[in-house]
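pls design
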């Protein structure tokens, strides 16, 4: 009986040692920073980088509106999803289709922006995404 208690105590001590090692290992691990895109942080970044011409036509609220509609476009909220990835696979940030989508949505709200101004805002948005680490290296073309 005493031997059984001794073995049980030894196994319990081993369990505690393993748990302590796991906790210590987890505490030592440095978590990878996951980039988070926040429109409110992107707006001043983009606005400060606009050309003088674009800045003469756009204010901070215009930049925010353009970026918000771009996010809406990229998330595919304008169309029902067709499956897990659905029609999102062909969406490109800052591409012609995105610019046309943003231009149409803003126009529908009564805001008229030049194609070039929207393109410039979205180009600077791409720079912001790269600056926060949300854009990786260019992917190889699988086709």
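designed seq:
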């Amino acid at each position: 009986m005493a031997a059984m208690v001794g073995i049980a105590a030894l196994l319990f001590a081993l369990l505690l040692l393993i748990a302590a090692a796991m906790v210590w290992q987890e505490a030592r691990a440095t978590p990878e920073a996951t980039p988070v895109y926040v429109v409110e942080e992107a707006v001043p970044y983009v606005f400060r980088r606009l050309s003088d011409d674009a800045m003469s036509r756009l204010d901070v609220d215009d930049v925010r509106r353009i970026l918000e509609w771009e996010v809406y476009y990229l998330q595919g909220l304008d169309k029902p999803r067709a499956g897990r990835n659905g029609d999102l696979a062909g969406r490109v940030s800052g591409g012609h289709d995105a610019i046309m989508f943003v231009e149409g949505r803003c126009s529908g709200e009564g805001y008229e922006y030049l194609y070039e101004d929207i393109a410039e805002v979205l180009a600077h948005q791409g720079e912001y995404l790269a600056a926060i680490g949300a854009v990786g290296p260019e992917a190889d073309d699988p086709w």
